[in-house]
Amino acid sequence: MAEALRGVRAIAARRRDERAQAIAWAQSYAAKMAVDVPLVAAVVFGSYARGDFNTWSDVDVLVLSDAFPEDARARLDLLWRHRPGGLEPVGWTLPEHAARRRRRDPIAVEADDVGVVVHGALPTPPP
């Protein structure tokens, strides 16, 4: 019984460490992004935020900035400039974020509910 408990504790500790490493990785990405564009917030959402990640999970990061270009290709180029493999950024302006919150977009909802802020602060949702 004690052996099994030790094994469970070791697995739980390893999972906490993996999650912490992924969040630190996202924080490093956001810091590099902030050199190129003023960020309002960067938030880890998805499986790493929830803690139910697996071997095939990527690190999902919502990046908010009013300085993002409107052109989708230019925006992706900017978001992917410092992107390490396995990290999946999503970039929205503040008006886009507000509109997606109103529509209950799953990314916006998850960022609000379980997101881990790694840079700046999420705008306060309206009452």
Descriptive notes:
Helices cover 52% and strands 17% of the residues. It starts with a helix and ends in a 7-residue tail after the last strand. The longest helix has 35 residues, at 2-36. The relative contact order is 0.19. β2, α3 (72-80) and β3 (87-92) form a beta-alpha-beta unit. By secondary structure, it is of the alpha+beta class.
**So what's the overall shape?**
globular
The N- and C-terminal alpha carbons lie at a distance of 50 Å
Which oligomeric state applies?
single chain
The main β sheet shows up as: 4 strands, mixed
Can you give the helix content as a percent range? 40-55%
Percent of sequence in beta strands = 15-25%
Calculate Rg over CA atoms: 16 Å
List how many beta strands DSSP finds.
4
Low-pLDDT residue spans: none
Query: Strand order, biggest sheet?
Result: 3-2-1-4
- Given the structure, what is the number of helices? 5
Order of helices and strands: HEHEHEHHE
Give the overall average pLDDT: 91
Class per helix and strand makeup: alpha+beta
